[in-house]
Amino acid sequence: MPTYNKLVRDKIPHIITSSRKECRTRILDPEEYKEELRTKLSEESEEYMSAGSDQEALEELADMLEVIRALAEVHGANAAQLDKLRADKAEARGGFQERVYLIDVNEA
Predict the structure, then answer these.
(1) CB 67 within 8 A of CB 37
(2) Is the dihedral of CA 21, 24, 27, 33 positive or negative?
(3) Model confidence over 20-38: pLDDT tens digits?
(4) Which of 3, 49, 90, 96 is the most buried (most CB within 10 A)?
(5) Which domain of life is it from (predicted)?
(6) pTM of the model
(7) pLDDT tens sequence across 57-80
(8) Residue range 13-23: average pLDDT?
């Protein structure tokens, strides 16, 4: 029997039991949940970095976005508030569409 010990999407236990398998789960306390979300974001980021196609990359980005939204809630904001923060930063500092690559800054 494989052991996973990781945060999974809410419907995964139902999907497992629907296929006539059994699984054990538990509900994480708030601190464990925050830590496991951070771990999950790292895991999804690694999967994105190793994606072999645009479609796989987009699916991993969607997974990352789901985790990021959950992390925003853990930190006291909803998805709309997070997007407003993103938009405000983009307005003040720009986005990444122009592909600007900073080489160095002369401090003199």
Answers:
(1) yes
(2) negative
(3) 999 999 999 999 999 999 9
(4) 90
(5) Bacteria
(6) 0.90
(7) 999 999 999 999 999 999 999 999
(8) 97
Percentage helix, strand, coil for the chain under 3-state DSSP, each rounded to 5: 60, 0, 40
Residue 19 token pair: 């296929």
Residues with Cβ within 8 Å of 63's Cβ and at least 6 positions away in sequence, in order, are 44, 47
Contact 64, 39 (CB under 8 A): no
Tokens 């904001």 sit on residue = 77
Radius of gyration of the chain (CA): 18
Domain ranges of the chain: 28-91
**Which amino acid belongs to residue 45?**
S
Which residues are within 8 A (CB) of 26 and not within 5 positions of it... i.e. 6 or more apart? none
- Residues, the chain, total? 108
